[in-house]
Amino acid sequence: MTPSPDQVPDETSSGPAAPGAGRPDELALAVAALADEDLDKAGRRKLLGRMLMGLRERGVKEVFMPRKAINWITEAVSDLAPHVPVRNLETLRRHYPGLSDDALAERLIRNAARAAAGVGAVGGGMASIEWAVPPTLLSTPVLLATETVGVVGIELKLIGELHEVYGQPVIGTPSQRAISLMQAWASHRGISPMLPGAAAATVLGTATRKQLRDMVLKRFGRNLTTLGPLLTGAAIASYLNRKATRRLGNDIRNDLRLKLPRPVLPPGSADAA
Asked: pTM here?
């Protein structure tokens, strides 16, 4: 049975949520629900509508200014990131019993890719949906910004859960974990186990911020396919979202595999030589 978008999903975070998170926390719960593999199109539309209404509180004037739109989206993602619920390994094992690490990672990547594709498909027809929101919020720039933030949120959640699967959970305060997730998202690489906690919070320098903005720009540009004719735009956006999210998941998974500690071999063995 598909859960109602109004219900809070069963998500166990790898760390406590920030107290008094307010609207960013509600947006994060909407992103978590968007990532549900069983969510239908109607539910996805409703969740995107909730995100749109929440993002409205940030003010949307800058979204209509090309030079400021990317900064607006980047800041929205930065505010959302500390509140994205990441399921810990115990919860993941409970939801997907009997799977090996690699099989579990593949399931998470597949589900995230499908969810991103679903956002793209819904986004392609969003302008034709009658929502109980002001007409100005149904303008193309705002819809594209909402879609972009939603997909990036799904991908940040995927990154955090892949780290759980491979025994490298993202640690630190919510803000520190958010910075680590955004760095991993921008670079398509796993978080360095040698740079935990507070150290990670000090390295989001100019270069990394530029990398983050460049990645947001690519995502936003990809979502411009939504501007195509209703069905064509939806189909292309769905395909491109699925492809990009799967590529990100595969890149992170492969990098985490390389970071796994190697087993200690007994002296004199062929491999130890």
From this structure: 0.77
Phi/psi for 196 (5° steps) reads: -85, 165
CA distances from 194 to 103, 162, 180, 191, 262 (A): 27, 18, 12, 9, 16
Three-class DSSP labels, 104-127: HHHHHHHHHHHHHHHHHHHHCCHH
Which band of pLDDT confidence, cut at 50, 70 and 90, is reported for residue 172?
confident
Average pLDDT taken over every residue of the chain? 73
pLDDT in tens, 221-237: 655 554 444 444 567 77
Residue type, 195: L
3-class SS string, the chain: CCCCCCCCCCCCECCCCCCCCCHHHHHHHHHHHHCCCCCCHHHHHHHHHHHHHHHHCCCCHHHHCHHHHHHHHHHHHHHHHHHCCCECHHHHHHHCCCCCHHHHHHHHHHHHHHHHHHHHHHHCCHHHCCCCCCHHHHCHHHHHHHHHHHHHHHHHHHHHHHHHHCCCCCCCCHHHHHHHHHHHHHHCCCCCCCCCHHHHCCCCCHHHHHHHHHHHHHHHHHHHHHHCCHHHHHHHHHHHHHHHHHHHHHHHHHHHHHHCCCCCCCCCCCCCC
pLDDT over 70 at 200, yes or no = no
Taking the C-alpha atoms of residue 76 and residue 55, their distance in angstroms, rounded to an integer, is 8
Q: Is the pLDDT of residue 66 over 90?
A: no
